Amino acid sequence: MEKSIEQAVKNGFFPSRIEDSSFGSYLVLDEEKNRVGIFNPKDEEEYATRNPSRIGWFQKMFRLCCPRRGCILANQAYLSEVGASIVDECLDLKIVPKTKVAYLASPTFNYSSAEKRKAEQQREHISGVNLPNKVGSLQCVVEGFQPCTFWLKVFASKKLLDDELKYELQLLFERVIILDYIIRNTNRTAENLLICYNDTRKGDENYAVNMAAVDNRYAFPYRHPRRRRPYTYYWATLPLAKRPFSNETRSFILRRLNDAKRMSSLFEHLKKLFELDENFDQDYFKLQMMLMQGQIFNLKMALENGESPYELVERCPIYVHTHPDDITLPMNIVTDKTLHLMKGKY
C-alpha cells in the first residue's frame, strides 16, 4: 500500500488533511484515487513541533492550563496506534484496522520553511528531489462505520436488538474492553468506537455487524493515571459493563493469554516497534511493559473468576515483572506506592 500511495503523490493525488482534527492527520489515496488510509506523522502530533492545528498550537502554548497526559510519553502516538494493531493481531481480536509504521512525503504535509527551501534548492540542481519523508502511523480506512452511539440509538428505536444481535454486540464490546484494558487506553470515547451494521437477512442469511476501535494514540502509558485525571474508559459507564464476561470470550482470551510462546512474541514485536523511535528509552519501555503485564494479570484473574468489566476496572492497578523463561508467570507484583523499589532492579 505504501508504494501505491507514493505513486499517487507523484501523480498529483496528494493526502488531504482532516480539518476537524486537533493534530496533523491525513486521508491518503492510492494511485487509482481510492481512499486507502489515514496517515498521522510523528512531528505533527498534538504536542509536536509541526502540529498544523490551531487548537494544537494553543494547547502547546498554554500547556500549564491544558496539560498533556502526564502518564503518556510525548510524541509516541504513532507507536501507540501501531502497537494497538499488534496486540489486536496477536490476540485475534479483529477490531483494530491494520496499522503500521510508514514513511511518506507530500507537499500537503506541514513542513518547516527551511525544509521547503532546501528541497527547492536541491531541485534546481538535481531533478526528482522531493521533500523529506515523515515517519508516522498508517491505518487502513474502514468504510461504512458510524460512532457506536449512532447505531445503538437506531437499534433501540427500531427494536432491532434481538437476542442474536445482542449477543454478537456483547462479544464485540468485550473484545474492545480486552484491547483497551491491556494497552491501558486513556482515550476511548463514543466517537472512536465505531460500528458497521448491514441487515442482509434473506432466508437463512444473517446480518453483518462489525466493530472498529480506532484512534488508539493515547495508550501504553509508563505509569497508571493519577486519581486527579483517571482517564476512565467510555465503555465502563455502559450497562454492558455490569454483565459478566461471556464464557466464549473467557475461553477465547484465556487460551491466548496463557500461551507463553504467543505472549513472548507479542512483547518482542512491541519492543522492535518502540525501538524504531529515535527517542527510545529502555527504562521507560520496561515500565510500559510492566504496566501492561499488570493489566494482563488483572484481566486473567477477572476472566478466571467470572467477573464483569466493571469489576475488572475496579481492580487495583499494578505492575508485574515476569519470569525470564515464561512471560506468563509473574515474579513480582507491585503498586504505584512500591514501584520505586523495582526501578533499576531489572
Automatic annotation (TrEMBL):
PROSITE patterns: PI3_4_KINASE_3. GO terms for molecular function: 1-phosphatidylinositol 4-kinase activity; ATP binding. It holds the Pfam family PI3_PI4_kinase. Its EC number is 2.7.1.67. One of its GO terms (biological process) is endosome organization. Keywords: ATP-binding, Cell membrane, Kinase, Membrane, Nucleotide-binding, Transferase. The keyword Repeat does not apply. It is a peripheral membrane protein. It is an enzyme of class 2 (transferase). It catalyses: a 1,2-diacyl-sn-glycero-3-phospho-(1D-myo-inositol) + ATP = a 1,2-diacyl-sn-glycero-3-phospho-(1D-myo-inositol 4-phosphate) + ADP + H(+). It is found in: Cell membrane; Membrane. GO terms for cellular component: endosome; plasma membrane; trans-Golgi network. Residues 12-322 form the PI3K/PI4K catalytic domain. Belongs to the PI3/PI4-kinase family. Type II PI4K subfamily. This is Phosphatidylinositol 4-kinase type 2. It comes from Trichinella nativa.
